[in-house]
Amino acid sequence: MLNASLYIIVCSARNRLFVSLRRLREPRYLIGALAGAAYLYFSVFARVWGARTGASRRGRRTLPLDMALPAFQTAGTGLAGLALLVMAAIGWFLPFESGLLEFSEAETQFLFPAPLVRRQLLIHRLMRSQLGLLFAAIVSAIVFPSTAIAGRVRFALAMWLLLVTAKVYFTGVTLARTRLVAPSARARWMAWTPVAILVAALAIVGTAIGRELLGPAPTSVSDGLTRLGRVTLVGWPPIALWPFVALARPLFAAWPGPYLIALAGSLAVLAATVAWVLRGDEAFQDAATEAAERRVARRTAERSPVPRAQATAGWTLAPAGPTEAVFFWKNAMQTLRATSGVTLVRYLAPLVILSAVISSLIMSANQARGGAAALCTLALAAAGFAVLLGPQIVRTDLRTDLGHLELLKTWPIKAGAVIRGEMLWPACLVTLVGWFGLACATIFSAAAFPQVPLAWRLSISTAAVLLAPALVVAQLAIHNVAAVLFPAWVPLGNQRSHGLDAMGQRLILFGGVVVSLVFFVLPGAAAGGVIMFAFRRFIGAAALVPAAAVCGVMVLLEVLMITEAIAPVYERMDLVSVERGER
After folding, report:
1. pLDDT per position as a tens digit, 322-347
2. Has this prediction a pTM greater than 0.70?
3. Which among 306, 346, 448, 481 is most buried, taking Cβ atoms within 10 Å?
């Protein structure tokens, strides 16, 4: 079976490479591949080689991670282990499924009827996943802050072991969840045992962290991280965290002795995780079958969706009104009906992570302290993320409905109304999120920005509230205009193509959005600047409000004109110009 798996892996990788190379004959894929390659070169390789050249010219080498950051010598592995413990616990509660159980249609047709045991199928899927995990480990090693090739290789090996263990662990979680209510007492006992161990570890570590935080409040983010790391080094927490710390220790260990010892511990954890998963292969057949059925049902629904009657949450479309209201109602109902736990996590997790990072940077720059300052910076970062990147994420507009272009063209409505109506719901949704963040930031702004007078804080907040919808609508207009002008470049719905060419296409579109947004805002910003200069001597900081209002109105007028100007292009769109297949 191992030889057959290796043969399948090699042939699949070779065929995938040939397909990617063949489609470079099309200009859009070739341009995208060139843009993606240029981005990787200038953002990763050029910086790495430049840093190495600079270090060699200075006659010294960059220190490894554990020596460059002395704090990580004592607390880094503990903090990493604590983060892995939290991720391991979250895996039991979130409705995610393991990728190892996602068999392709060919694998389902040929391997399931073959004379293979369940463990062999699991091992086959684990081997198939190694190419992606190795690529992720290599990419992380490339950006690793070290000039030594050997250091990058060691980091890649440690990261690969961590990723493989995580992949196998979440597969075990998926299999165990199916047996939590099994009729067999032995199966239930085996499923609940890791849950009990994980809960005990969380209780031990959480109690220790609670005792530490009951004392004086941390004075900074670094102080809080140092205290958390100190908790993981004494008492019972090191024992509870040992498997997770063992996985993270090779990332920080020095060469050669400590690294080899840490690598042995990481391998031991991986072996124990694999043994746990293979012991629970009884539930593999059911879990794999359910995953295959979900995959087939999802593809069938995407290709030929079946209409279903559902409740409209008490919101009924009026029998008369503007044409734009039809699309506003449709997209709103589509969002409300499709919202689930996975969808919320998918959208909220990047928002929370990026907001936390930006908040830490803002607090460090302003030397802000306290819970109120943290809430203000977090809300400010969330509002900025929603306004600047929300239109890229919320795609319930023409980018989704291009797949039904043949139906839209049969409706006796104006093209401009279609484009504006498609933009209304995502504009309102993203704007509301941005306004909520701005409101929270305004409430706690005194703690985060005590040096800024109240009049300026209120004026800036009001101006941001006025500008937010204009910026959101302008970006949505750019995205929808791009969907009309270049429909083959825009992924339909939730399609996410992979590869260097797809990454380059997304970079080109993102750059086009940024440049177009600058041209959208520039006339309004110039007019607003004149208004502010004229009224500032009379009303002071409050001059920001009329300036923002004038800028916002001008941007909205530009959006109205561009939707009318693009209407003839929409009318001439060919149905075959929209690429409906997966790329």
Report:
1. 888 888 888 888 777 665 444 444 55
2. no
3. 448
Residue pair 570/415 in contact by the 8 Å Cβ criterion: yes
**Which two tokens mark 25?**
């004959």
- Cα→Cα distances 334→327, 328, 330, Å: 10, 10, 6
Ranges of each domain in the chain: 13-60, 63-293, 322-577
Main-chain dihedrals φ then ψ at residue 579, nearest 5 degrees: -90, 110
* DSSP-derived 3-state class of residue 309: coil
Rounded CA-CA distance 372/268 in Å is: 44
Spatial CB neighbours of 86, under 8 Å, sequence gap ≥ 6:
none
Chain mean position to CA 347: 7
CA 78 to chain centre: 25
For the stretch 338-393, pLDDT in tens is: 654 444 445 555 555 555 555 555 555 554 455 677 778 778 888 888 888 888 88
* DSSP designation for 235: S
Sequence-distant (≥ 6) Cβ neighbours of residue 115 within 8 angstroms:
none
Tokens of 7: 């043969």
Three-state secondary structure call for residue 530: helix
Could you please report the per-residue DSSP string of 252-288?
HPPTTHHHHHHHHHHHHHHHHHHHHHHHTGGGHHHHH
Contact 535, 451 (CB under 8 A): no
| 424, 510 contact by CB (below 8 A) | no
d(CA 402, CA 575): 9
- Count other C-beta atoms under 10 Å from residue 173's C-beta: 22
CA gap 115, 121 in Å, rounded:
10
DSSP state for residue 41 in the 8-state scheme: I
Residue with the two structure tokens 């690793």: 144
